[in-house]
Specification:
- The protein contains ten helices and twelve strands.
- The chain has about 300 residues and is α+β, with helices and mostly antiparallel strands.
- The protein folds into two domains: about 120 residues, PAS domain (Beta-Lactamase); about 180 residues, Alpha-Beta Plaits (2-Layer Sandwich), CATH 3.30.70.
- A five-stranded antiparallel beta sheet has the order 2-1-5-4-3. The protein has a five-stranded mixed beta sheet with strand order 7-8-6-11-12, with helices on both faces.
- The longest helix has 18 residues.
Length: about 300
């Protein structure tokens, strides 16, 4: 009876909570964990993180299930840990979360498991407010839920005005899904649409608060990065490239993943918006021609 009461309390939390036994197998998965990750309790209990489930990665691409897992370390030494990581959502995209791990001990003080509490660390509420504004202004791409090309053009003009008037720099990154036609040809357009939504979500969740993502057309997206010079474009671009590479959809028994090529350009006050866009587009072409799944940035 007492156990049921505790479970009901944990199910009322907004934070995701799961518990593992001494071997690392999941023995409890609360409702918030279901809502944040997309995986039901039935899908999670009995599995380990590394069983194609959450697959945590750091911002620099380190796969924690293979090396540096805070939960595994806590099972060994009993120390509490915190980490900011990206988990793998059931819909394929990468979602930033803040995780906190604590040991579970028996009455003799021996470690018998661990509990991980994780909080959605994304800008979801901010994005939802922004998307509502886009809907009102008919500036949203219906398929992916990000801004459309018209919204991108508005954002570019706004960023360029800030550069000209206040000297606030900005940069542009084009993002193109590699070999997207092969996805449609192999799995059909419904899966292709799911891939577009997955990449759009990965782009949104991988950006900073001052950045914005738009669907430019087809399988191509544009990122407008406020306050960014060349180094900022390279850093954000490489993080996005890594997160996209480590995102996938489950189609039947297959894992369907893609990579992206990215081309960026920093804006100069003496150049117009069209010149900045052309510069970024040429950098994207270079990324595609030199092997794909890479970031090319020019000034």
């Amino acid at each position: 009876m007492q156990s049921d009461i505790y479970r009901e309390m944990l199910d009322q939390l907004y934070d995701g909570v799961y518990m593992v036994d001494r071997t690392g197998a999941i023995v409890y998965w609360n409702r918030a964990a279901e809502q944040i990750t997309g995986y039901s309790s039935e899908e999670a209990v009995g599995k380990r993180c590394s069983d194609n489930l959450l697959r945590h990665v750091t911002a620099n691409g380190q796969q924690l299930c293979l090396q540096g897992c805070p939960l595994k370390a806590t099972l060994v030494d009993g120390k509490q840990r915190e980490a900011a990581v990206f988990l793998h959502h059931k819909d394929g995209f990468r979602l930033p979360v803040l995780v906190r791990v604590s040991p579970l001990r028996d009455r003799f003080g021996q470690i018998e498991g661990a509990v991980e509490i994780f909080t959605d660390n994304s800008k979801r509420l901010t994005h939802e407010h922004e998307l509502e504004q886009l809907r009102l202004l008919a500036l949203m791409d219906e398929l992916t839920g990000v801004g459309n090309r018209r919204a991108a053009e508005e954002a570019l003009r706004s960023a360029h005005r800030k550069l000209a008037v206040d000297g606030i720099p900005y940069g542009v990154l084009f993002v193109d899904i590699d070999h997207f036609k092969a996805i449609n040809d192999t799995y059909g357009h419904d899966v292709g649409d799911d891939v577009l939504r997955m990449i759009a979500s990965t782009l949104k969740e991988g950006l900073r608060e001052r950045d914005a993502v738009f669907r430019w057309g087809g399988e191509e997206f544009m990122l407008v990065l406020g306050g960014s010079g060349r180094d900022g474009l390279c850093t954000v671009g490489e993080r996005i490239r890594m997160l996209a590479e480590q995102s996938w959809l489950e189609v039947g028994d297959e894992k369907v993943g893609v990579t992206v090529s990215m081309g960026g350009c920093t804006a100069l006050a003496e150049a117009d918006v069209e010149t900045v866009v052309k510069c970024a587009d040429e950098a994207l072409y270079d990324a595609k021609q030199t092997g794909r799944n890479r970031v090319c940035v020019t000034d």
